[in-house]
Amino acid sequence: MIINELTALRQNDTGVLVYGIAEGIRMGWR
User: Fold this and answer.
1) Three-state SS string across the chain, please?
2) Rounded distance, CA 19 to CA 3, Å?
3) List of residues 6+ apart from 30 with CB closer than 8 A
4) Is 9 helix (H, G, I), strand (E, B) or coil?
5) Is residue 19 packed enough to be buried (19+ CB in 10 Å), middle (13-18) or exposed (0-12)?
6) What is the pLDDT of residue 1?
7) What percent of the chain has pLDDT over 70?
8) Do residues 29 and 23 touch, judged by C-beta distance below 8 A?
9) What angle do helix axes 3-11 and 13-29 make, rounded to 10 degrees?
10) Is 22's pLDDT higher than 60?
11) pLDDT of residue 8
12) Which residues contact 16 (CB under 8 A, 6 or more apart)?
C-alpha cells in the first residue's frame, strides 16, 4: 500500500471513485 499513490488519487475525483470501489471490492472479497 503506497500512501503517496492514495493521496494522489484522493486529489482527483476519479481517484476517489476508484478508491471507494476498490474498498467495496475488498470488503466483498473478504
Assistant:
1) CCHHHHHHHHHCHHHHHHHHHHHHHHHHHC
2) 12
3) none
4) helix
5) middle
6) 54
7) 63
8) no
9) 130
10) yes
11) 66
12) 9, 10
- Which amino acid type is present at position 18? V
Q: How many residues does the chain have?
A: 30
Judge contact between 15 and 8, C-beta under 8 A.
Answer: yes
Cell of 24: 467495496
- Residue 19 near residue 9 (C-beta atoms within 8 A): yes
Please give the Cα distance from 30 to 14 (Å, whole number): 24
Amino acid at 5: E
What is the grid cell recorded at 28?
466483498
